[in-house]
Task: structure prediction
Amino acid sequence: QDTFLWVKGIDEALRFIRSNGPRHGRLIGGLIKKSMAAGQLKRRPLLRVIPFVMGAVMVPNLMAGPIIKAAPKLPFGVTRRLVEKHVLSDEALAERVDMTLSALRA
Result:
């Protein structure tokens, strides 16, 4: 599963980003443009919106691997299971997307 790339290793994660990043960027950019044109999202410069979306949606997955690897040493009861549930699960991703879209409508 893509969300576990950082757990597998940095080299594999970087290969995935290099091979899929441009395509995903074009896809996300295209969807954002269409949504702005349709009035579903507030019009903003695309170069402001794409980093915001990527930061909100993708960065948590990138951070999850190092967090999982350090989990036995982390405070506040963070465990692999909690990271998987609240960061890596489909439900967590869908909620981040919903929160991001709500922010982009404002």
User: Anything to note?
Assistant: The chain has a mean pLDDT of 84.
